[in-house]
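Reviewer 2 asked us to include a model.

Predict the structure of this chain.
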Amino acid sequence: MSKYVFGPVPSRRLGYSLGVDIIPGKYCCFDCIYCQIGKTTNHQIERKSFFDPYMIINEVIEKVNKSDHIDYITFSGSGEPTLNSDIGLMIDEVKRTVPIPVSVITSGALLFQEDVRKDLLSADVILPSLDAVSEDIFRYINRPHLMVEIQSIISGLKLLRKDFRGRIWLEIMLVKDINDDEEELRKIKDVADSIHVDKIQLNTVTRPPGEDIPGMLTKDELEKACSFLGNTCEIISTFEGIPVQHEEKEWTKNVLDILKRKSLSLDDIVKITGVSFYKAKNRLKLMENEERIKSYHFHDTIYYMINR
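Predicted model (structure tokens):
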């Protein structure tokens, strides 16, 4: 089983994305109410070197050489990737060695720091989050470290836009009856416009979160919010791609690698691995019987996750 690299997985934002997990679970600046990984166990903002960066780089290169199709190499995973002080080195080395664009999924909590912004300059796409602009709503949804304030995040995003020559795709996670009213959407729109992001990507809770929350918006509600946020806004659609075939042993390994970091539906797993629904369902049932994974319902869909 890969230690740092998982996938490629079908991403609604990035196509087939090879995940690079450079943070132990779960070190994060936030403890978001909708996080599917679960509660933050190490709530911090201090950056440090967690692993040997060259071991991670070599694992990325090895995986790329074995994979038929990867759209992006994505630094994300079990926590906030910019907490790793070696991320700049890793991005630079991957970019030097592999002809695949690099993306970084981040909360944006540390972008106010010059060293963090400098580390991300070689990436092709940065995907920060902005779920709220009002401090009270921000703290309710994202539950940030006590030293993180929404205005520092907004300032960091503006400074990033000034220096960064790649694309910035701003994700907004809408949670029913919390940050989806017109007043908060107006504040988010004003900030996004001032940053001049390339895209606003609208999302809602579509996977099982770590705890019980009000949940997802309807399609009509998302479309209304999207229209309000303007022409650069899009609703993150269901991934459509050509399934990648794997042998059974490799299939199980790949599925477990991904389930360590995120939950997947049966449909997700079929798209990732290329096997039939019948085969996937039987293999997952066997893994459940072996107590390697577990399943549960969320909004009429069965999801699978690692049995920790």
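Residues 240-244 have pLDDT under 50 and may be disordered. The first helix runs from residue 53 to 66. We have added this to the supplementary material.
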